[in-house]
């Protein structure tokens, strides 16, 4: 893949949706890359290191349960069963896997208190807290566009045999 301008906004374009850096030209929205080629002229590279990184993060935060856990923990530390009750519909195994994945990715901390019986609490790290705003913005976008999405799905389904 060609090297892109380094002095512009970092945006990623690959087969999953993202090229490394781009800049809009005076024509309002055509993105230039070194050699005066536009983003549409550049073959996407799904093996680009930045694309792989973005895909890894999106796989974690885009799964069914992680966003719910992050938003719940945004209100403060919670115990395992409290999280499970608040989410509803999540199995013990799936919540365990979700919490472990978030902990492994540095989004959640797990604290064991030396009491009898032992008490375990989960809390967001600074990195986990920084995820709440983009998730909230995505949720607001989804709500604002739900009618259009429903209409598009209905129109698509009506065309299917």
Automatic annotation (TrEMBL):
Alphabetized Pfam families for the sequence: HxlR
Database matches in InterPro entries: HTH_HxlR, WH-like_DNA-bd_sf, WH_DNA-bd_sf
Domain HTH hxlR-type: 51-150
Tree of life domain: Bacteria
GO MF: DNA binding
Alphabetical keyword list: DNA-binding, Transcription, Transcription regulation
Name the record gives this protein: Helix-turn-helix transcriptional regulator
Provenance organism: Gluconacetobacter tumulisoli
